[in-house]
């Protein structure tokens, strides 16, 4: 844990600020560096790609047995690519904004020569032969992929556990959830397992793990990043609008960089941040823990002299959660069920759910319960017509509302809970998701870009984050305000609990 010291903000309020290691010096560990800094040092010849890649590999080999974040590696290939990068640098042929930088990606993204299983046992040997579009773009910028990180089955749960690869633990407290569905990526980045990572989010899948593990995460907005090569592919237009793909890492500048690499680049502004109003609601219609509420109020108090402020919930906030569930249930689970075709036999969700309760199913009960729930929440034709009209009018309303506004709200009502708690809160027959999911569902339903920033910790040392969201086109304003939060508050701090005893100096930067 970093040394804490008390400082006073401009309103005389005490807050704890982490003492961060000096960036750029020999005392700065490669494991603490973001991709932007590491890329710069590789280009300058101060750190070799080989040494950085080898250090990340050795670190992952050490931490993975404890947290189970990485499910497949390409370490031998990565070492060869790093050696080739160093050769190109010497010859003056270094190209790309991530040249020689070791990264990781969520298991759902196709990587040539690697498996894409979706956490399903019957896909355990399914090797793909073409990169996902986002992977192609990252490789084209010189990135070196170390491996793929764990997810729940078919990325359909907010906690990372599946019958094929098992459970990913939260590095800050292994008894707690790492979130999902990008929970393997969140845990991996928390311990500094790569320079930057890649996740996807249709129901909090980047933001849950970023919040629970204390990292930076960015969900792109509607139709801004290609999902080609993402498994399972999202088929329906109404669901596609909810999907966002983006960086999971150590800094806001990396989130911006990766978004620039992956995104379409349309309608991006260079805004005057002072012209934006902050929407920071102080009272919500859904639960909010005491520690999270205090941090939200602290953010409001810190910035209320610098920005115009609004404290009411944003438009359509309470309605969005049920709409999210119904959008996810458009076809009653038929698209999801297609992936459970085993040896030409279609598995029954009902039978597999019962079998899972007595440990005889290869399908986790959250997945079968989700498919059963989809049948219950599938909207009628009349309801679907209403939802489509609701989305159309809501898009128009929010486009105007968010023209010069940034929304700052919690990610979840609490820090990372113990394993299994999310299942009770989000998969309950009592529809408790309506109470606990509104902070997450809002950005998905309206296709809003959202940046997650750690701003503090609980009394037990678990990270707590906020998310910043606005409309597509306001990404740069989101990143700029995110950098303000990053500087004033916790930001990314690497979990050092798994550093090898007596070898902390060994992970210091290897200068050429």
Give the tally of structural domains: 1
Overall radius of gyration: 22 Å
Helix content: 25-40%
The average pLDDT is: 91
Strand order of the largest sheet: 3-5-4-10-12-11-18-19-17-13-14
The separation of the N and C termini measures 29 Å
Q: Main sheet? A: 11 strands, mixed
Mind telling me the CATH superfamily name? Amidase signature (AS) domain
DSSP helical segment count:
18
Shape: globular
Question: The CATH topology is what?
Answer: Amidase signature (AS) enzymes
Beta-strand proportion: 15-25%
Short description:
With 512 residues, this protein is of the alpha+beta class. 36% of the residues lie in helices and 16% in strands. The chain has helices at residues 35-43, 49-67, 75-90, 133-140, 183-190, 207-213, 237-240, 252-262, 290-303, 320-328, 334-337, 349-357, 365-377, 381-401, 421-426, 433-436, 438-445, 475-488; strands at residues 4-8, 14-18, 70-73, 102-106, 144-149, 161-162, 166-167, 169-170, 173-177, 197-201, 216-219, 244-249, 277-279, 308-310, 341-342, 345-346, 405-410, 450-457, 463-469.
């Amino acid at each position: 844990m970093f040394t804490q010291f008390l400082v006073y903000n401009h309103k005389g309020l005490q807050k704890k600020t982490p003492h961060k290691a000096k960036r750029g010096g020999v005392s700065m560990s490669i494991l603490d560096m973001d991709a932007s800094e590491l890329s710069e040092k590789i280009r300058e010849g101060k750190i070799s790609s080989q040494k950085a890649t080898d250090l990340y590999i050795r670190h992952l080999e050490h931490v993975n047995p404890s947290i189970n974040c990485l499910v497949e590696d390409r370490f031998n290939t990565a070492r060869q690519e790093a050696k080739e990068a160093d050769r190109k640098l010497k010859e003056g042929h270094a190209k790309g904004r991530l040249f020689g930088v070791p990264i990781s990606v969520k298991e759902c993204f196709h990587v040539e020569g690697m498996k894409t299983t979706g956490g399903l046992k019957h896909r355990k040997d399914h090797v793909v032969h073409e990169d996902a579009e986002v992977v192609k773009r990252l490789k084209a910028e010189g990135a070196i992929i170390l491996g793929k990180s764990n997810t729940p089955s078919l990325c359909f749960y907010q906690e990372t556990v599946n019958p094929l690869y098992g459970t990913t633990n939260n590095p800050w407290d292994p008894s707690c959830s790492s979130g999902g569905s990008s929970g393997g990526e969140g845990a991996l980045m928390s311990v500094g397992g790569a320079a930057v990572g890649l996740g996807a989010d249709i129901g909090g899948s980047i933001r849950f793990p970023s919040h629970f593990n204390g990292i930076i995460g960015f969900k792109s907005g509607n139709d801004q990043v290609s999902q080609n090569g993402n498994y399972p592919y999202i088929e329906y237009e109404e669901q596609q609008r909810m999907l966002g793909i983006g960086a999971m890492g150590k800094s806001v500048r990396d989130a911006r960089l990766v978004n620039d690499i992956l995104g379409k680049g349309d309608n991006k502004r260079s805004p005057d941040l002072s012209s934006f109003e902050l929407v920071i609601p102080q009272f919500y219609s859904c639960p909010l823990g005491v520690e999270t509420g205090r941090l939200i109020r602290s953010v409001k108090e810190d910035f209320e002299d610098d920005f115009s402020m609004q404290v009411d919930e944003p438009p359509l906030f309470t309605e969005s959660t049920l709409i999210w569930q119904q959008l996810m249930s458009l076809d009653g689970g038929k698209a999801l069920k297609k992936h459970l075709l085993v040896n030409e036999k279609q598995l029954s969700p009902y039978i597999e759910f019962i079998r899972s309760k007595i440990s005889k199913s290869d399908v986790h009960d959250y997945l079968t319960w989700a498919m059963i729930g989809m049948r219950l929440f599938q909207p009628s034709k009349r309801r679907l017509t209403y939802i489509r009209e609701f989305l159309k009018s809501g898009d128009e309303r929010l486009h105007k509302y968010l023209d010069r506004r940034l929304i700052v709200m919690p990610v979840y009502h609490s820090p990372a809970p113990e394993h299994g708690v999310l299942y009770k809160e989000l998969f309950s027959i009592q529809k408790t998701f309506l109470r606990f999911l509104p902070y997450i569902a809002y950005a998905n339903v309206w296709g809003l870009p959202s940046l997650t920033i750690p701003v503090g910790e609980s009394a037990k040392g678990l990270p707590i984050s906020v998310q910043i969201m606005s409309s597509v086109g306001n990404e740069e304003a989101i990143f700029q305000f995110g950098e303000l939060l990053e500087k004033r508050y916790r930001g990314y701090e690497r979990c050092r609990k798994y550093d090898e005893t007596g070898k902390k100096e060994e992970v210091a930067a290897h200068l050429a």
